[in-house]
Amino acid sequence: MRVEYTEDQRLVHQTVREFAARELRPRARAWDAAGAFPEEVVAPIARLGLWGMTVPPELGGAGIDAVSMALAIEALAWGDGGVALSVAAHNSLCAGHIVRAGTAEQKRRYLPRLASGEDLGAWCLTEPDSGSDAAGLATRAVRRGDRWVLNGTKAFVTQGSIAGVYVVMARTDPDAGHRGISAFIVERGTPGLRIGKHEDKLGMRSSDTAEVVFEDCEVAEEQMLGAPGEGFRDAMRVLEGGRIGIGALALGLGRAALDAAVAYARERRAFGRPIAEFQAIQWMLADTATELDAAELLVMEAAARAQHGRPYRLESSMAKLFASEAAARAASRAVQIHGGYGFIKDYPVERIYRDVKLCEIGEGTSEVQRLIIAREVLA
Amino acid sequence: MHVVVCVKQVPDTEAPIRIRPDGQGVDESGLTFVMNYYDEHAVEEAIRIKERAGGTVTLIAAGPARAAEALRAGLAMGADQAIHIQDPALDGLDHLALARVLTAAIASVPYDLVLCGKLATDDNAAVIGPALAEFLDLPQATAVTRLELGDGTATAHREVEGGVEVLEISLPAVVTVERNINEPRYPSLPGIMRAKRTPITVKTIADLGVDLGGSGAARVRLLGLAPPPARPPGRMLEGEPAEVVRELVRLLREEARVL
Ligand SMILES: Cc1cc2nc3c(=O)[nH]c(=O)nc-3n(C[C@H](O)[C@H](O)[C@H](O)COP(=O)(O)OP(=O)(O)OC[C@H]3O[C@@H](n4cnc5c(N)ncnc54)[C@H](O)[C@@H]3O)c2cc1C
What we know:
The complex is a heterodimer of chains A (379) and B (259).
Chain A: H1 7-24, H2 28-34, H3 42-48, H4 66-79, H5 81-101, H6 104-115, E1 121-124, E2 140-144, E3 147-158, E4 165-171, E5 181-187, E6 193-198, E7 209-220, E8 224-225, H7 231-267, E9 269-270, E10 273-274, H8 279-307, H9 313-338, H10 348-355, H11 366-378
Parallel strand pairs in A: 1-4
Antiparallel strand pairs in A: 2-3, 3-7, 4-5, 5-8, 6-7, 9-10
Helix pairs in contact in A: 1-4, 4-5, 4-7, 5-6, 5-7, 7-8, 7-9, 7-10, 8-9, 9-10, 9-11
Chain B: E1 2-6, E2 9-11, E3 33-35, H1 37-53, E4 56-62, H2 68-77, E5 81-85, H3 95-107, E6 113-117, H4 128-136, E7 140-149, E8 153-160, E9 163-170, E10 173-177, H5 189-197, E11 200-203, H6 241-254
Parallel strand pairs in B: 1-4, 1-6, 4-5, 5-11, 6-10, 7-10
Antiparallel strand pairs in B: 2-3, 7-8, 8-9
Helix pairs in contact in B: 2-5, 3-4
The complex binds flavin-adenine dinucleotide (FAD).
């Protein structure tokens, strides 16, 4: 890590990195092969307090600052990308939305359970026919007496098949465009909430991704999260924070790729010497190291702005865009440096290469980040 | 039960150590420092005692400003308070003089038990614990693998050649711990946030009322430090498998003498 952090921020990073080195990294390959979320990590992650990073201390959370949270996600991703994605989505999206928009009663009811890991959190915006165009979502919530009835299908939901608490964006006014979308909290076990297809993925295979289906799913009126018609705006704010997390996640994967590439380049010999002595290899390592440091500066700048209550929409998009693309290049070069061994599963770079791709897609594709940045630049 | 734990911040054992050009210490630039592993186990043991029997856990570290990080880590694990002895004069002290300084710090708080790591991984001296027992005039047990507290006494298990030695000591006492005594917890994020708000008491040697003049002056002088000899390069045996195996066995027997 390059930025000057405070003592406690360094301690957060050091602690989570050590946890990742001991508990995640040695198992990452097996979890990747299994393609399922490893339930056994829920309790140790809870003991560290990582399920409640965004939750205030009086509700059982760690209440840590945004920079510390980015450092924690970076350190987790260095050990296992999928576990880091699960923790990031749980905190930034599900718990983060409730912290941002919830009533005192909703916070009291859901945040302690999320912070302790007793319930995992999911956040459902994307649908089979709407992703980047999130405001085009078709899930409907219709009022019936003092209750809301949800119908629709949500796609690619992180922790979709294992969550206890779902935050769901649904259309409450069909004529009001993005102003007609509201958010709801739906608990697992609510009649009409059905877990659909579990996705078999390219990477991030240790995170759970599933379809979540609502069929006449009835919730009480007080399950609405935030003001009616404000669900989309709140969701966009939630994503601004989430993107810092994806940037940090990308950074952790990029650093893992660089560490592996450096170790391998020192060890592997060709033409009578370690390949690290070839300038072609050195330049790849130099470019990666430089780009990852630049990514770190962008991610931490966005996090610091969030922490100090300054606007950070532009900064979080830039951080997410640059960090995810830099990390993808880092992984690609790391595979290249490993030669044929980079293409087989015995070396971690093969998995990192697949995992890192998600960072250019989830929580807004690179194209969407460029749209947001361009809009601000041209404003 | 009030437990005092002495902790030291040391270079990460995986960090590459470079010796300073003056040969009087290591080059700290680029080194990562951590709490001495053995001390992590001592802190864990102290917190477990507090969780079972109540009381407090006080950490004491002597060292430069950066040593506060080791204290924060211990506070984040669950210790209650910390004393940081910071003094330019610490640099010139030998282990015995340092033990006298630590003794004064320990004596400034209530305690029923003093825990230390068996040794510090940087200088491997294993002197501080026994020296504290001597200066505090307390019974001691070293390299303890299991500790059970009774009424005014403690039972300590030690691994000795061929078996386990079980000692009973009266409290207060000084106990140094082995790494297999427990599995230290990770500091938790809420713990780190709590630790951030816990003030660390900073004291100089003079604040502790220790006069190191005369007998306290270093009686051991560091003449120099040298890196371990570089490992000779590995040797590749070539030829027919049967031949190579025969040669390997011969080398293991005659040169490496491991067979
Ligand atoms: C592993 C994983 C986990 C996920 N977790 C969650 C989750 O927890 N919750 C959730 O709600 N969603 C989640 N998603 C969904 C994710 O956010 C979407 O996949 C992403 O936003 C892209 O949407 P899409 O897949 O519909 O692609 P589309 O929007 O169909 O995009 C297809 C292509 O068109 C491009 N494109 C679209 N519009 C434009 C434009 N205006 N200009 C230029 N290019 C454009 C895109 O960049 C992309 O290249 C997850 C996805 C994955 C893969």
